[in-house]
Amino acid sequence: MIRTTARHRSVRIARALLAGAVLGAAALAAGCAPERPAPPAAEKVFRFRLREDPPTLDPAMVTDNLSDAVTANVFRGLVAMDPATLAIVPAVASSWTISPDALVYTFRLRDDAFFQNGRKVTAQDVAWSFRRVLAKGTNSPRRWLLEPIAGSAAYIEGKTPDVAGLATPDDHTVVLTLDHPFAPFLSMLTMTGAAVVPREVYDDATKGYLRAPIGCGPFQVVRWQQSNAIEMRAFDRYYGGRPAIDRVIVRIIENRASAVEEYRAGGLDSLDEVPTDLPDDIKGDVLRYPFIGVGYVGFNLDLPPFKGNPALRKAFNYAVDKEYLWNVLLPGANTAGRGIIPPGVPGYDKDLPGYPHDEAKARSLLAQAGYPGGRGLPPITLWVNTSEENRQIAEQVQADLKKVGVGIAIKEVDWAAYIQAVEGTVEQPGAAQMFRFGWYLDYPDADAVLRLQLHSKNVGPPGNYFRYRNPAFDRLVDEALGLTDPAARADRYRRAERMAVMDDAVWLFLNYYGSMTLFKPYVKGVVPTPLGEFRIPLEKLRLEKTGS
Fold first, then answer.
1. pLDDT of the residue at 4
2. Which residues of 423-449 are buried (b: 16+ CB within 10 A; e: fewer)?
3. HSE value, Cβ hemisphere, 13 Å, CA-based, for 78
């Protein structure tokens, strides 16, 4: 028999009590203990593709859809456009009023708008942002958005230190006074060029904001790896509520075939450029919807041989078979175009004749233009930016023109070089004689394409790349701006369009756009918009799958 001292007995009792406590705790856990916390939810990452790097992420400088694909998600202005209905809705401004004479716009700012650097948005930020766009030194191609404000011309020219029609009575109020009624003004303020930016970021001589933009929209750019990817993260303090998506990865993939394979492999959740030979496994992912845009080949009217020769421009139009282009070569959402104002926009002219394919008329007009059978024409180059579809279109235009005796070369360059050759400067034309282009209306008004693209005041980078100058056209477009009667405005626009199309043949009119976009089945909350696939609001998307 083993003897046990008092000390040993106390240790044994303590151990027994401890064992009982452990068993009791185990029993309690098995019965009514709270569950362990669930593992953190997988990060939601949405990936879409751009064919090239955006030329800029500065909202004051954006003129293209590649840039807007990013900036539209980073920045916000006073008002926005509902992507589905195209109605004007509040953004940084919670409400606004317009005076009976349509000259004074008073905006009341919301209390919960913050920049992505954490600072609250104030009326003074709006005023500074607008002055920045208007300032001559900024050289913004979107200056015209704000030129209707009284005193803007004097400010641009440096005659006054401030814009007379721009006032901020307090931190929450912005008052804009116009020189004269300007019907589409509120719609124009929905564009990225009218975004609000923080002065402490954008008043920077080193221009660090070009790589690290800061706005007050739903996503913030956190990484830009040139020619590879742009990364955006959800902004927690976005006034519209934090997006359901945590991150957006914009993949830069130039080749369409490579992009399709990446989509099929799961490396992309959306794809903007849908091939005509769509593989069976992703045919069900196609979303089709209307799109207010127009496609064309532009003529540079300051360069030979198109300068002062509308007969030649008409000959080119009759030579190209647009029905073949969109029904056979590139079947899809686009339709053959007859003019400038797309269907669905007030002022669209369903009776506009346009230029149906007619080789006999093309040859006759070539002779009238001084180039019978194409003889005597100087060398002509059609510029395109890098894209398989642009290349196909250019080659078909080249083939159709060859049938009537006209030979043209094709020059394919990246977007930055292309834009430079197309835009030129206000004083000097760009190098491109002909160029494949598309114009997507930023707001559903004929003004968004007629004035911006063809008014003589917008020659060069502001939008009139064709350098078209016609005082009669300008008068009609200017008259429409001051009218409040929709029917009267539409009449002016139809008359102006016929002048530019049937009299002057300012473009080689190719197509009215439709949209086709691929979305994986697990991408929910997609809002198709006539503004184009890059304006589908990412903050409304949800990814209903496990992981990213």
1. 34
2. bbeeeebbbbbbbbbbbbbbbbbbbbb
3. 27
Please report the pLDDT score of residue 329 as a whole number. 94
- The span from the CA of 112 to the CA of 273, in Å, is 37
SS (H, E, C) 337-359: CCCCCCCCCCCCCCCCCCCCCCH
What is the band of 507 on the pLDDT scale with cuts at 50, 70, 90?
very high
pTM of this prediction? 0.76
Phi then psi for residue 125, to 5 deg, are -65, -40
Q: Are 443 and 80 in contact (CB under 8 A)?
A: no
CA distance linking residue 249 with residue 49, whole number of Å: 8
- The full set of domain ranges for the chain reads 45-269+520-543, 290-514
d(CA 235, CA 458): 36
Structural contact between residues 120 and 114, judged by C-beta atoms closer than 8 angstroms:
yes
What's at 329, amino acid-wise? L
- Topology of domain 45-269+520-543 in CATH is D-Maltodextrin-Binding Protein; domain 2 (3.40.190)
Digit-coded pLDDT (tens) for 355-374: 999 999 999 999 999 999 99
* CATH of the structural domain 290-514, one choice from 3.30.43.10, 3.10.105.10, 3.20.20.140, 1.20.1250.20: 3.10.105.10
**Are 238 and 232 in contact, with CB atoms under 8 Å apart?**
no
Query: What would the mean pLDDT of 253-265 be, rounded to a whole number?
Result: 95
How many angstroms separate the CA atoms of 132 and 143, rounded? 9
CB 232 within 8 A of CB 248: yes
Give exposure, 41-74, as e/b (b: 16+ Cβ within 10 Å). Answer: eeebebbbbbbbbbbbbbbbbbbbbbbbbbbbbb
Tracing tokens 């912005």 back to the chain, one arrives at 174
When pLDDT is cut at 50, 70 and 90, the band that residue 480 belongs to is very high
Please state, in angstroms and rounded to a whole number, the distance separating the CA atoms of residues 316 and 437.
16
